Amino acid sequence: MENQATATASSDTKSASQLPQLHEPRNAGMELDMDWVAAAQANTSAIERRAKTLPGRRSVKKEYQAAWLLKAITMIDLTTLSGDDTWGRVRRLCAKAAHPVRQDILDALDMPPITTGAVCVYHDMVETAVKALDGTGIPVAAVSTGFPAGLSPLPLRLQEIRESVHAGAKEIDIVISRRHALTGNWQAIYDEMRAMRESCGDAHVKAILATGELGTLRNVAKASLVCMMAGADFIKTSTGKEPVNATLPVSLVMIRAIRAYHARTGFRVGYKPAGGISKAKDALTYLALIKDELGDRWLQPDLFRFGASSLLGDIERQLEHQVTGRYSADYRHAIG
Ligand SMILES: O=C[C@H](O)COP(=O)(O)O
């Protein structure tokens, strides 16, 4: 990660509450352009070849690692999406989001306090999370629309969105109907997405493609474009519940679709890889990929998030190693 190696993240690693949480102007969307959708391609073997090279050759120089890891924390949607979630668990998660790094580590690194980018919970936990985060500036993201399958009737999904927004969610993570994508019914995906965005009101909407269930990278490219045309503010890989969640090949396809959409419309759409990202070194690989493909503007919490439940724990461990000088062999290898 040569560019990152020469840059320092410390100067722009700030409290999430000091940063724009939601990008403006929002994506206004456009008419469904079926010609563009039909032309969307994804050269699977080329993409997989490129993706394979990413983890090996990406590294951040040792002196900048802590800063980049802290920056990664500011872009985490700290998540709990379990069937056994309790109000207490959600409150503890919110407390962690407000103070994700121990003060002695921040002091040792001479870094200001930070927070995570958001807290992500089930629809029915929004009120609890909003109360717990009061005064922190951290937004609540709700998974609504019959998460994770997204198969409840559309009016119920829209009602769930409205209730999440009413309860105080500033970001709504919706899931698309995979069955429409798999049968090529892009109009139906577009119409549903439009209706969901409308129901979100001022809350930003992240469209979860559930890429592990879309069959092909070509479908991932098409679904990305259709959701952006329908006004998605973010596109997100996965619910975390599919057999395969965020991967580098899928990420390449989605962020190139974001780049193409920006080139055509001028709107910046955010990106959220989610599911199975639990290692600090993987987080750095994702940040390098974003920097390479989309540029620095996307390396801010209003345009990039990790959807992750356990990534923060590994980043904390790596930061502690940084401070104490006890590097794990695995991490030393990643440093290069
Ligand atoms: O949207 C976020 C994902 O559900 C989190 O997945 P994870 O538990 O594998 O980190």
From TrEMBL:
It is an enzyme of class 4 (lyase). SUPFAM superfamilies: Aldolase (SSF51569). The keyword Ribonucleoprotein does not apply. One of its GO terms (cellular component) is cytoplasm. Coiled coil: none annotated. Residues 1-20 are annotated as: Disordered. Its EC number is 4.1.2.4. Keywords: Lyase, Schiff base. Residues 1-17 have a biased composition (Low complexity). GO terms for biological process: carbohydrate catabolic process; deoxyribonucleotide catabolic process. It catalyses: 2-deoxy-D-ribose 5-phosphate = D-glyceraldehyde 3-phosphate + acetaldehyde. One of its GO terms (molecular function) is deoxyribose-phosphate aldolase activity. CDD domains: DeoC. Pathway: Carbohydrate degradation; 2-deoxy-D-ribose 1-phosphate degradation; D-glyceraldehyde 3-phosphate and acetaldehyde from 2-deoxy-alpha-D-ribose 1-phosphate: step 2/2. InterPro entries: Aldolase_TIM, DeoC, DeoC/FbaB/LacD_aldolase. Signal peptide: none annotated. Belongs to the DeoC/FbaB aldolase family. DeoC type 2 subfamily. This is Deoxyribose-phosphate aldolase. The lineage of its organism: Bacteria, Pseudomonadati, Pseudomonadota, Alphaproteobacteria, Rhodobacterales. The gene is deoC.
